[in-house]
C-alpha cells in the first residue's frame, strides 16, 4: 500500500520510509513534519490530529467528547428515548457546533 497526498504548491507527498505504515489510518488527519525536495516531498507523522468523538459503550448510550474554543475538553450525553434517537441527536449537535468531521468509536468492538 502506498499512501500519498498533495501539497498546496502541487508537490506530491509520500510517507517517510522510516515510518511504519500499518500504524497509519488513511482517513484520519495527522500532524506531520514535511521535507520538500525538488519534485516531491516526504512526511514524517508526528501524532494524530485531535478529532471530536462520539463514544458508544455496550450500554448504547452515546457520549459526545470535544474541545471547545478555549481547549477545554467537554462531554455531553444526549437524552432521548431510543439508541437511534440519541445517536442522531449527538451527530446533529456536533454538526451544529460546526465540526467538519467526527469519529465514532464503538467501545464494545475495541475490547474484542
Helix/strand class: alpha/beta
Distinct helical segment count = 2
Identify the strand order in the major beta sheet: 1-2-4-3
The average pLDDT score comes to 89
Q: How many distinct folded domains?
A: 2
The profile of the biggest β sheet is: 4 strands, mixed
Order of helices and strands: EEEEEEEHEH
Helix content: 10-25%
Radius of gyration over all CA atoms, rounded: 18 Å
Spatial gap, N to C terminus: 26 Å
By DSSP, the count of extended strands is 8
| Beta-strand percentage range | 35-45%
Q: Could you name the ranges where pLDDT drops below 50 across 5 or more consecutive residues? A: none
Gross morphology: elongated
Q: What's a quick, concise take on this entry?
A:
The chain is of the alpha/beta class and 112 residues long. The protein contains 2 helices and 8 strands. Helix content is 17%, strand content 36%.
Features:
112 residues; 36% strand; 2 domains; alpha/beta
Explained architecture:
The chain starts with a strand and ends with a helix. The chain contains 2 helices and 8 strands. The chain has helices spanning 83-96, 107-111, and strands at 4-6, 12-15, 30-36, 40-48, 53-56, 63-67, 73-76, 103-106. The strands form 2 sheets. Strands 1-2-4-3 form a 4-stranded mixed beta sheet, with no helix packed on it. Strands 7-6-5-8 form a 4-stranded mixed beta sheet. The protein is an alpha/beta fold and 112 residues long. The protein is elongated, with a radius of gyration of 18 Å. It folds into 2 domains: 4-48, no CATH class; 53-111, no CATH class.
Amino acid at each position: 500500500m502506498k499512501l500519498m497526498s498533495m501539497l498546496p504548491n502541487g508537490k506530491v507527498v509520500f510517507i517517510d520510509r522510516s515510518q511504519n505504515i500499518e500504524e497509519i489510518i488513511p482517513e484520519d488527519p495527522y500532524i506531520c513534519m514535511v521535507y520538500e525536495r525538488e519534485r516531491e516531498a516526504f512526511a514524517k507523522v508526528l501524532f494524530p490530529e485531535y478529532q471530536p468523538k462520539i463514544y458508544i459503550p455496550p450500554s448504547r448510550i452515546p457520549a459526545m467528547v470535544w474541545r471547545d474554543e478555549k481547549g477545554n475538553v467537554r462531554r455531553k450525553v444526549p437524552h432521548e428515548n431510543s439508541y437511534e434517537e440519541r445517536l442522531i441527536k449527538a451527530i446533529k449537535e456536533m454538526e451544529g457546533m460546526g465540526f467538519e468531521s467526527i469519529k465514532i468509536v464503538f467501545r464494545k468492538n475495541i475490547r474484542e
